[in-house]
Specification:
- The protein is an all-alpha fold.
- It has one domain (2-181).
- The chain has helices spanning 2-40, 43-49, 51-58, 67-88, 104-139, 151-181.
- α1 (2-40) packs antiparallel against α4 and α4 (67-88) packs parallel to α6 (151-181).
């Protein structure tokens, strides 16, 4: 089971990483295109390049339409995609100033408690994400420039949030078992 959960979390993170790389590349192309478009419209470029400036502008050199919409959807998906790996390896930010002096058994119980709370919060977020997706499916709202249905971004993020819930439930169960047995059952960061 642990191998499946590990592969699921890593696979989701890799997919999120690929989406993030694509969004970064798209944003870079859009910014460079917008800057070149602005430069080619300047009086200096018109005088220096002449017809070449007009030719480049006629090619459509400029900002990528809808890049903000794709950036918004892609980053949301990437965030949800990276979360399962963070959860599996307990890589979330922790403040253990007050608990570092406590016995190992107490620290395991604290870790198990917060793992259960976090998992409950993630399930709540996933449920609300699903409800939001349903609302956009029913009202048919689309994005401004690309006109793709808003619910597509919600669906992608919801799919990743389902993985978060699966990994979260698994981690919560194993953290509880760790607190009872005193053995390490989950990988550490």
């Amino acid at each position: 089971m642990q191998r499946f959960i590990r592969q699921l979390a890593r696979g989701t993170a890799l997919l999120g990483g690929l989406v993030l790389i694509a969004v970064i590349a798209l944003t870079t192309v859009s910014i460079v295109g917008r800057s070149l478009n602005k430069l080619l419209h300047s009086d200096g470029a018109q005088a220096w390049l002449g017809d070449a400036s007009r030719w480049l502008l006629d090619l459509g050199l400029g900002e990528v339409n809808g890049s903000y919409e794709l950036l918004e959807a892609g980053v949301a998906f990437a965030i949800f995609s990276f979360f399962p790996v963070c959860q599996l390896y307990a890589s979330h930010a922790t403040v253990d100033v007050f608990t570092s002096f406590l016995p190992d058994r107490i620290n395991r119980m604290i870790l198990a408690f917060w793992e259960v709370v976090l998992t409950a919060a993630l399930i709540l977020i996933s449920w609300r994400l699903f409800e939001g997706m349903q609302r956009y499916v029913n009202n048919g709202e689309t994005t401004l420039f690309l006109q793709f249905p808003v619910w597509w971004a919600y669906a992608a993020s919801f799919a990743a949030s389902v993985v978060i819930c699966v990994v979260g439930l698994y981690c919560a169960a194993l953290r509880l078992a760790e607190s009872l047995t005193g053995r390490d059952l989950l990988p550490s960061s």
